[in-house]
Amino acid sequence: MGVALRKSAQWTAAGYGTRTLEITPLNEAILKEIMMFVESFIYKHPQEAKYVFVEPLEWKTNLDPSAFESGYIVSETTVKSEEVDKDGQPLLFLSVPHIKIRSFGQLSRFLLTAKDTKLKEAQACIEANRDPVTKILGLDYNAMKDDTSVVNILDKITKDGDPESEIKMKLGMLLKHLDLHLLNHSLKHISLEICLNPAIVKNDIERLKHLSGKGEQTVLESIDYTSDYEFSNGCRAPPWRQIHGEICYVVVKPHDVETLCITCSAEGVFLNGGKTDDEGGINYERKSEIYKDLVTFLKEKSAKFLENMSKQDVRFSEEWDKEKELNEAPKKEEEPTLQKALPASGKSVLEKNQINFGKSQMTKRLEPSLNWKATVDFKDKNVLRDTQEERHGGKLERSGPIVSPGRAQLVRKSAEKIEEIISESSSESEEDEEPPDHRQEANADLPSEYWQIQKLVKYLKGGNQTATVIALCSMKDFNLAQETCQLAIRDVGGLEVLINLLDTDEVKCKIGSLKILKEISHNPQIRRNIVDLGGLPIMVNILDSPHKSLKCLAAETIANVAKFRRARRAVRRHGGITKLVALLDCAHNSQEPAQSSLYDARDVEVARCGALALWSCSKSHVNKEAIRKAGGIPLLAGLLKTSHENMLIPVVGTLQECASEENYRAAIKAERIIENLVKNLNSENEQLQEHCAMAIYQCAEDKETRDLVRLHGGLKPLASLLNNTDNKERLAAVTGAIWKCSISKENVTKFREYKAIETLVGLLTDQPEEVLVNVVGALGECCQEYENRVLVRKCGGIQPLVNLLVGINQTLLVNVTKAVGACAAEPESMAIIDRLDGVRLLWSLLKNPHPDVKASAAWALCPCIQNAKDAGEMVRSFVGGLELVVNLLKSDNKEVLASVCAAITNIAKDQENLAVITDHGVVPLLSKLANTNNDKLRRHLAEAISRCCMWGRNRVAFGEYKAVAPLVRYLKSNDPNVHRATAQALYQLSEDADNCITMHENGAVKLLLDMVGSPDQDLQEAAAGCISNIRRLALATEKARYT
């Protein structure tokens, strides 16, 4: 189950808070399979259902205690199962809203109790317990997660000496079978998915347009795009929707149903929310199931379309087949004419389209080696993916003629998805898309080196051992950094020969071959060819050789080749990670070069080459985990103490890559690596400084690590490195480290001492975005303190910060809004922001499609409104601004809702503005949010309700919209800020008699009485005032009864 959830389930990208499961058909299918397994578990496996988990599964549930019946001890807010463990602890414990379950039996009963909400409960459980198998069976099972052998599972579980080992063993096998079932189910689901592209969608729409118009025989009355603008990639959806796979939007008017607004996306076709009031705006929310194409969708929605389309289907399919035949017709007769007509650049493009033709010529001229024959099938499988796509500024362009619409693309995309799940491929970015193949032009003027290399390859093929060594030495004398020489070796079949030589027993031949492969493998095309020819498994085997020179050369070549995903996967699958980690152990006694012998120097070089290869491999998440399990962290920590600078760069580079994983960050602290990273910040080597700073940036999310950086004196060298702005990569790493370290107030004080804040303000202009994101992030943290806000203002930092509010980089906008909001807390800075039109720019960011930007902008507006001289008039001056804020209360994002409620609290301080937002319907929207369990949202929602009560009959309206009873439940929260805000809101609401009755019925008096004794004076007064109002109503009622 753990592997399936990691590899098959689709998770959202982390923004605010934790990652969650996306609402997709695949995720729904996985959840339903898990639910079926759990629900039937208690009947199919009654013994295993009683097994008590090592740790409970915990999550927030929406289930009410009243839903539980026999077998449970139920109170108003808690539920305990009568079934207990050997220590007398209940196997199910609910304390609203948190639930803990410790056996499959109780999980089964819980799902049966949940009934209609069980899908949401299963989703919440999975999201809160990302690795449920570890909690069920313990960490020992987690350590063998990647081992698919059932025999090993049985062996490892039975060795732990647990008296319940037999049950645990069976449970482990059941979970392993479930995992395999989920993976297979996911593969079947993905293989059935339809992947559309702009060409297919456009083709369908154009054909439907031809068949549409007035008259009963037409299939539709009309079909039109919502946008006339077409991007270069064929899409008409805005760029921020294209990242969700959306292609275009069409408005369709069938004969027999109302107008439909449809989204066409890569996943399929579905009904959206239609056009909004904004000019040209679309409600992108999905309102229907996803269909495989536009025609299928319309057949489902319109009976008239189905009837008329059935008459047109023959013509439709005939045109489709005709186009298919035209596109797939052979082009060989046209090639000579095209080559004459095309200029040089056109010829090179044509040559790219003739890769397969070129390969067939080479195989005729040169007899392929055994390795080539062994790997040709593998190569054919990968050739489609390797040659179809090319990166050109983020666009995908075809490298060959168009095939039948959708067929090849569907096969390729489905195959890629399946391969990605099976291979556990990661989301690394460097060279993930391999470059297209490239051959020398047949009639091009080739340099003399090309022909000389061709002769040398012949000697390599047919000569004896001496001739082979001489030919290798001669080939090494060429300038192998030159692309012509690199491709010449490949084009004349030299690569196959060089890889074959690695399989011989002659050490000299192996060394010569590896020296050449090491040089030419810097070329991306050569790298791919080496993998296709099966070179990596042979190099991995050489890592076991007793010859240290061979180990070094093999590791360095692997480092060059493992720059793309398929190569990294091949290294791992053939046991390369474990062998590379073992190389790091060679240099444990060679820390001082002054005392090292020649033997020790070779050991150091072996370890350096091993670290270099691990650095390349560590760009994959699965490889990072493999390095950790192979014991790589202590060895890397040991190498970090060396004074060999050329060793330190790959070691720190590997640690920097791996530090993105939480397991590594914990291990880095445990191995005291931070101290050495800080020490190497003082190095003269810029590359080493960059990687050390980047590693600190990755690790400094943790408070303990930030404190360690300060204690070991790392803040001063970071501040001093800010003055060197020529190397932008290093500057980005250094500013990133400063940003993360600034989260701790003690570090901010130190940075102020070192004059780092003034330097950061100077970096707000003329810097690349990757630097600006970090600089602004650091200033946002520093400006949480008054002294630093004044310092930024005096250094002229307000204007460049406001200028950055017009950017499009989402991360930069989040950081800029936070920094501007922090500065606005100081009245003089706020005056400058207002003068520079900064508040209007912040308000306009509330329209940004990214929820993180919206939330950050809304938070920033709060201090702006608080500290503006005439805040009420300023807010009213923004045309449509108040309506925009109120409409944001319809968002699904909790952070956006909390920030907007905080903004409304400040806006509502002005009576005129409060009247306007009341007219825009703020009361029902706030009331609708009252049933929330999020304490942050509760606090700001209660404050907003408290403020909004001060206009007209809003108090009465909140009662009518049933906002009072949920507010009473807020008093049971553990957050004192929620208590204060809620008590103030209830005090305002208690001015209405009906609200007092609702409060009394929901037990508010008892809760408020406890809060009258609070040390918080505001809470005391609000609680006492509310009780007073309730009591006065009771007395008046009693008096009226007796009179």
TrEMBL record:
Placement of ARM repeats on the sequence: 534-576, 880-922, 962-995
Bias kind Basic and acidic residues: ranges: 325-337, 383-398
Key words of the record: Cell projection, Coiled coil, Cytoplasm, Cytoskeleton, Repeat
Cytoplasm found in the keyword field: yes
Any coiled-coil regions, as ranges: 667-694
Keyword Repeat: yes
GO CC terms of this entry: axoneme; ciliary base
Pfam families per the UniProt record, alphabetical: Arm (PF00514), HEAT_2 (PF13646)
Region Disordered, residue ranges: 325-345, 383-409, 422-445
InterPro entries linked to this entry: ARM-like (IPR011989), ARM-type_fold (IPR016024), Armadillo (IPR000225)
SMART domains, sorted: ARM
Main localisation: cytoplasm
GO BP terms: cilium movement; determination of left/right symmetry; heart development; outer dynein arm assembly; regulation of cilium beat frequency; ventricular system development
Subcellular location: Cytoplasm, Cytoskeleton, Cilium axoneme; Cytoplasm, Cytoskeleton, Cilium basal body
Function summary: Component of the outer dynein arm-docking complex (ODA-DC) that mediates outer dynein arms (ODA) binding onto the doublet microtubule. Involved in mediating assembly of both ODAs and their axonemal docking complex onto ciliary microtubules.
Protein name per its UniProtKB record: Outer dynein arm-docking complex subunit 2
Organism: Neovison vison (American mink)
